[in-house]
Design brief:
The chain is of the alpha+beta class and 399 residues long. 47% of the residues lie in helices and 18% in strands. The chain folds into 2 domains: 172 residues, 2-Layer Sandwich (Cytochrome Bc1 Complex, Chain A, domain 1); 167 residues, Metalloenzyme, LuxS/M16 peptidase-like (Cytochrome Bc1 Complex, Chain A, domain 1). It is globular, with a radius of gyration of 26 Å.
Length: 399
């Protein structure tokens, strides 16, 4: 005998199913947003922040501001400082360093057991590091002086040295550190990363930070003058090659994403025409506070036309490829999403944005920002970067 048909789901289940689906969507969306970006909680206005990352080692990051080193003396001192502090940290596995043009990042691993933070003494750690770095510094400075002398035997390094020496003057609240002690004199931007929020832990560390850095420090807006006319530098080098460098002073501003996009486009667009001429090239983008620089350095065995910068500007504008630009946008969005997909990547990006007092963009926000950059904006950036009236030109020839 046939059995009566039994419905797979009863009516009550079917009534609540849409609600279950809706709740799951909300939960999945929230989780996706959590993994896509990190938020920072301000513990002390404009300088101490907390972020929660369950899958990352707990750490304290101190980002110290420095003025970029552009003269040869400054470069020697900066190289020596990096070497001295690196030597000072070799015996301390819980400390790591990152050196950037306008900042130095000290990362201290914190104990997994939050209760042990009571024995964490930041002031003693920094004093011991500085004492050790001071001991290594004289020898490091001697080595750095010799290293810079040897570095200038490279034709491209000589060109970059000339460019940096002719960057426009600027004023800054930040110091040009000359000794290990002076490096840590200014108040840093601090990012505390914990696996979960803990008021006792944050209070303990915040008290130590405020005790060491009791004086407020306000980052003043710095306006650096830009080149009003072309600066043309002619030099000679014992190399048999000719070098032509197009440089320009740049500021850290809200156009940084547009500038980055433009440089990726230029890098791809100039490669065929430069390589066809038997040349090699290097494209540099070095944004920094208060002033950074960009540079395109081209090297070959035959002399260059003195108007090469104008010729490149014309070539890039007349052969502008919007499809190529779209491919680059897609690639940059994917790279940004990949960085935000890991806890380490999110903390690295957050460290940078907090230092520059900017907002960390989610992947969707970054996508919207970069997709809103028009072809016209990129073409304008190309005009500015290769503007014959506002660039620094370095030409080096054989003797």
């Amino acid at each position: 005998m046939d059995q009566p048909h039994q419905p797979l789901f009863n009516r009550t289940y079917l009534k609540i199913l849409p609600w279950v689906v809706a709740i799951l969507i909300v939960l999945l969306t929230a989780n996706s947003q959590k993994t896509a970006t990190s938020s920072a909680i301000a513990l002390a206005e404009n300088w101490v922040y907390l972020t929660i990352e369950e899958e990352m080692e707990q750490q304290l990051r101190l980002t110290y501001p420095v003025t970029p080193a552009y003269t040869e003396k400054q470069l020697q001192q900066r190289t020596a400082l990096a070497s001295a502090y690196t030597q000072a940290t070799t015996s301390q596995s819980q400390v790591s360093l990152q050196w950037k043009d306008d900042r130095v990042i000290f990362s201290f691993l914190l104990p997994e057991d939050i209760s042990k933070l009571k024995t964490f003494d930041l002031d003693s750690l920094l004093k011991n590091l500085t004492r050790s770095a001071n001991q290594h510094f004289p020898a490091a400075l001697t080595r750095a002086t010799a290293e810079r002398y040897l570095a200038l035997s490279d034709i491209e390094e000589q060109a970059l040295s000339n460019l940096k020496a002719h960057l426009p003057m600027s004023t800054s609240d930040y110091i040009q550190p000359t000794t290990p002690s002076s490096l840590l004199a200014q108040r840093p931007t601090v990012l505390l990363t914990l696996k979960e929020n803990n008021d006792d832990a944050t209070d303990t560390l915040l008290k130590q930070l405020k005790t060491r850095y009791s004086q407020p420090q306000v980052r003043q807006t710095t306006v650096a003058t830009t080149n009003k006319t072309t600066t043309h530098i002619d030099a000679q080098h014992r190399s048999p090659y000719h070098l032509y460098l197009i440089g320009k002073a740049i500021n850290t501003d809200l156009n940084s994403i547009g500038r980055t996009l433009t440089f990726h486009y230029i890098n791809q667009a100039v490669r065929p025409v430069i390589e066809q001429s038997g040349s090699t090239y290097r494209l540099l983008l070095k944004p920094a506070f208060p002033i950074g620089y960009s540079a395109l350095s081209i090297t070959r065995k035959t002399p260059f036309n003195k108007m090469l910068n104008r010729n490149l500007q014309t070539y890039l504008l007349e052969n502008f490829d919007s499809k190529q630009l779209e491919h680059i946008k897609t690639s940059l969005i994917q790279q940004y999403g990949k960085q935000l997909s890991t806890a380490q990547g999110r903390v690295e990006q957050l460290t940078t944005t907090l230092f520059y007092q900017e907002k960390l963009q989610s992947e969707d926000e970054f996508r919207d920002t970069i997709n809103n950059i028009s072809n016209t904006q990129v073409q304008t950036n190309i005009k500015n970067l290769f503007d014959p009236e506002h660039t620094i030109i370095v030409q080096i020839t054989p003797p």
